[in-house]
Amino acid sequence: MGPVTAAVLAIDGGNSKTDVALVSADGTLLGHARGPGSCHQNIGIDATMDVLSSLVAAAATEAGLDTSTVAGIAGHAAVYLAGADLEVEVEMLHGRIAERGWAEDLVVDNDTFALLRAGTQSPDRVAVVCGAGINCVGVAADGRSVRFPSLGRISGDWGGGGALGVHALYLAVRAEDGRGAATGLRDAVASHFDCPTVAEVTAAIHLGRLPFERLHELVLVLFEVAAAGDDVARRVVDRLAREVMLMATVALRGLDLLDRPADIVLGGGVLAARDPLLLGTTLELLATAAPKATVVVVDDPPVVGAALLGMDAVGAGHAAERALRDALLARTQAAAVAARNRVRR
Fold first, then answer.
1. Would you state the pLDDT for residue 339?
2. Which residues of 221-255 are buried (b: 16+ CB within 10 A; e: fewer)?
3. Using CA atoms, how far apart are residues 82 and 42, in angstroms rounded to an integer?
4. pTM of the full predicted structure?
5. Widest Cα–Cα separation across the chain
6. Position 2 confidence tier, pLDDT thresholds 50, 70, 90
7. Residues 274, 177: Cα–Cα separation, whole Å
8. Could you report the per-residue pLDDT of 195-225, keeping only the tens digit for each?
9. What values do phi and psi take at 26, rounded to 5?
10. Confidence of residue 68 (pLDDT cuts 50, 70, 90)
């Protein structure tokens, strides 16, 4: 095995995609790989480890490291994963990742902590991520933290792109067959999937002709219909804004920060889209509920936060952080463009 040349192995494992980065102590991006989602709750722990292992090997290859074994390729591994929700899950994931021996030192936790670090270094901070799902974590200057189970409806959650897409279809179906209120979602949903009726969209999903995952696309359709003034769609957007506000303020209250200055980081694909109605309503609600808080909307992918947490652990300075952030943003943006081009073809 060759010498260790990476200070940090950073992993962000999400529901829809996974990013792996190898970074030197001066912030140089040595290798990066992007692949499919790696949430063990969706695909199982063995498949999760297969995804992570293949991407670590790909990043190591780009970095020019000896890949005959990827054990010991970094001094510190910062691994932040969707599905690391309950303590027992964090411990299970830590154990399985530690077996691979990728780094001498290992931290494993929920991917929302990576978003939090990407958005702020404030000692008192809360993050709400709304991407495929929705989650919230918070950290206080004295080391206390709060988190939600984030297990879906069984743990009281509502929101996220997956839930919004399904709900938009639900409202469109009921508008079409008369069980629900009239809404522009009826025509917009059918048109989006090039179907003459919403009922045919439902049939296509049921019969496997239309991947269920494509319902996530209806988030933007929902925003467009709401922006046009549709009352039904606007109520859904208002509900999501209120849910984001509730998660943030409950976390702040749990840390005794509701009446003190603190940062609230908003991120994930749904919030980072900066829909004017959703974001505007959310900011209004937060301004009333937590008037001393500062809201930060983060466009950076969570792997940036994972890498920065790793750099914090090895004592890297601000110059290294700036170099790393710039390099990772460039690579992840290029990967996103390549993925969109593949879909178009």
1. 67
2. bbbbbbeeebebbbebbbebbbbbbbbbbbbbebb
3. 10
4. 0.89
5. 68
6. very low
7. 33
8. 999 999 999 999 999 999 999 999 999 999 9
9. -95, 10
10. confident
Asked whether 311 and 27 are in contact (CB, 8 A), the reply is yes
User: What is the homologous superfamily of the domain 112-300 according to CATH?
Assistant: ATPase, nucleotide binding domain (3.30.420.40)
Considering the chain, tell me which residue range(s) the CATH 3.30.420.40 domain(s) occupy.
6-110+315-344, 112-300
| Integer Cα distance of 19 and 331 in angstroms | 10
Both tokens of 193, joined, read: 């999937």
CA–CA separation, 182 vs 172, rounded Å?
A: 8
Q: Are 106 and 113 in contact (CB under 8 A)?
A: no
Q: Single out the residue of 50, 46, 19 nearest to residue 32, CA to CA.
A: 19
Q: Tell me the torsion sign for CA atoms 120, 125, 128, 129.
A: positive
Nearest to 305 by CA among 335, 268, 336: 268
Fold (CATH) for 6-110+315-344? Nucleotidyltransferase; domain 5 (3.30.420)
> Which segments of the chain does DSSP mark as H helices, in order?
40-43, 45-63, 87-100, 112-119, 161-177, 185-192, 198-206, 218-227, 231-254, 269-272, 276-289, 302-313, 318-344
- Full DSSP string of 25-74: TTS-EEEEEEEE---HHHH-HHHHHHHHHHHHHHHHHHHT---S--TT-E
